[in-house]
Write a structure and sequence with these properties.
171 residues; 16 strands; 9-stranded mixed β-sheet
């Protein structure tokens, strides 16, 4: 397999050198309303968004060169789910080091409470829960807009297949 089509059950987007790319609709990629909304929003904000086939080798090369700035999945159930790394046949394609999810309401499932805060994710795992306003200078910041976050570890598999194939393989 050499093309990326989805992440879990979501559409996938990459930001490389300031421009966004997402797989083209070819019959096996879901033409979802969240996908369309993300594309429209990005374009309205002045970003270039290209819909085309995306080779795994291209994403790996961009990661190695440091030009892969962001990766995320978009879908109705999740909204936006940021991706830090992609596992590929025993290799890791690195997207970003630290992500700070700011302006969030964090759900403490054990205590049954919700509190305002920030969540620092490092190397794909929760590194810290921070108070509002605490700084994490090396982290890429994602403003959650007051949305709820339930801290926990969630693995999202990337699905790939050749254009036009119906059967997809998760890894």
């Amino acid at each position: 397999h050499k093309y990326i089509q989805e992440v879990g059950t979501m559409n996938i987007f990459f930001k490389i050198n300031g421009d966004f790319i997402t797989p083209t609709l070819d019959g096996s990629v879901l033409d979802g309303i969240t996908r369309k909304s993300v594309i429209d929003l990005l374009r309205d904000k002045g970003f270039k968004v290209t819909e085309r086939l995306i080779k795994l080798s291209e994403i790996k090369e961009a990661s190695e060169k440091g030009t892969l700035e962001e990766a995320f999945g978009a879908g109705t159930a999740v909204g936006i789910a940021y991706i830090q790394e992609i596992g590929l046949e025993g290799e890791i394609i690195h997207v970003s080091d630290d992500i700070l999810f700011s302006n969030a309401h964090l759900i403490d499932t054990e205590a049954g409470t919700v509190h305002q805060g920030q969540l620092l994710v490092r190397d794909g795992q929760i590194a810290a829960q921070l108070a509002p306003g605490d700084l994490a200078p090396e982290a890429e910041e994602v403003d959650c807009g007051g949305r709820m976050l339930a801290p926990g570890i969630v693995d999202i598999g990337v699905k790939v297949c050749e254009p036009g194939e119906r059967q997809k393989e998760s890894f």
